[in-house]
Amino acid sequence: METRTIKPYITVIALLILTSLALAFTVNVNISDEAGVKVFLPDHVGEWTGDELRFCQAPACQKSWYLSQIKEEGKCPECGGQLGTMTKVEADLLPSDTEVLKKQYTLPGGRTIFASIVMSGRERASIHRPQVCLVGQGNEIVKSSVLDIPMDHRAPLDVMVLDMLRRWRLPDGRQGEYDSYYAYWFVGKGRETPYHTMRMVLMASDRIFHNRSHRWAYISVSGDRDKAGAYRAEIKDFVRQLYPEIVLE
Ligand SMILES: [Zn+2]
Fold first, then answer.
1. What pTM value is reported for the model?
2. What is the spatial distance between Cα 40 and Cα 34, in angstroms, rounded to a whole number?
3. N or C end of the chain, less CB within 10 A?
4. Sequence ranges of the domains in the chain
5. Residue 104 C-alpha to ligand 1 middle, in angstroms?
6. What tens digit of pLDDT does each residue of 110-168 get?
7. If you measure from the C-alpha of residue 57 to the centroid of ligand 1, how many angstroms do you get, rounded to a whole number?
């Protein structure tokens, strides 16, 4: 009964939201270049040591390299092609003023974490729902949850954590499995959210009520997922130390 009585209101509210969004994305606004984070990943995050990633843009090669492996700046060690900070596929897909930075972090024992920052350009079309790309790459999302990360000297940060699973058939017929996690959140000037939808609402309200459009960044941290769940403490520890280095307060 309850659902029937509120149904008309939901329709009205949905129409209002759609109209607002339509207005928000068609009306001229002052595009501002203000961002909430730096496009920067430190060389050290606590015990972790980082090595930046570079990607060959030559269509026939597309190999990825660590910055430490590259002898001649900007040139692929194998084919001599031009190197970029994003993959060829991303470079073809994203607006040309999108900034991307990726780094692999390693612990002395060998454990690794990948961190990346995607900063939207003027077109603001650089950031998509992460789920779409991840599932496209053959991953299955088995669980999504918000992890509350305590921070020193500021409010906790909410991060979306996707538990992922990739399955494939081994030559002997058995099934191979790889468990991983993908954690992310969005940052605008003075704004943070783990939800893609909330980011759209915040962008729209900035446009409608404040006539401005800031650059949003999308930060992600990913790695192997253990069944016992220790990866959640690892995400907390890593992000708690990384974030203060890149956020612009
Ligand atoms: Zn190459």
1. 0.83
2. 15
3. N
4. 2-246
5. 20
6. 999 999 999 988 766 667 777 766 776 778 999 999 999 999 888 999 999 999 999 88
7. 7
